[in-house]
Write a structure and sequence with these properties.
Elements lengths: L1 E2 L5 E2 L7 H23 L3 H24 L6 H27 L6 H20 L7
């Protein structure tokens, strides 16, 4: 596997491999935590929050794994990094609240970062750097 300019592992064509790895891990965790939410949490509010976290983690995990190879430009790579950070804050906050009773105050920041990440991806695609031609 090649190394990119920042020293991160790169996949085919010099695109970063981390979005695929992060996406796969997010999707796998989402499946496991969703099963736990369905069978191991009695509190309806906590179960709902954990299922919401799982839904967003799974969807964005698939998105990261799918879009990673297409992140040819810097703006596209930044968009995916912002998207990952948003997912971690949003889903982590909801899951932490459901499983450990932690406050969920980071969820709005995470949600805002997810929206920003998608808008950055759209800008990269508009500029022709979001995907290979």
């Amino acid at each position: 596997m090649a190394r990119d300019v920042q020293g991160a592992d790169a996949g085919q064509g010099g695109t970063p491999a981390w979005p695929g790895v992060a996406g796969g891990v997010l999707a796998a965790l989402a499946i496991g935590l969703s099963a736990y939410a369905a069978h191991g949490i009695d509190d309806a509010h906590a179960r709902s929050n954990l299922q919401t976290a799982c839904l967003y983690a799974f969807g964005h995990g698939v998105a990261l794994a799918t879009l990673g190879p297409w992140a040819a430009g810097r703006l596209a790579r930044v968009a995916l990094a912002v998207l990952l950070l948003g997912v971690l804050l949003f889903c982590g906050s909801l899951a932490g609240g459901a499983l450990a009773g932690w406050p969920t105050r980071l969820a709005p920041t995470g949600g805002s970062l997810m929206m920003l990440g998608w808008l950055l991806w759209a800008a990269a695609a508009w500029r022709g750097r979001g995907g290979r031609r």
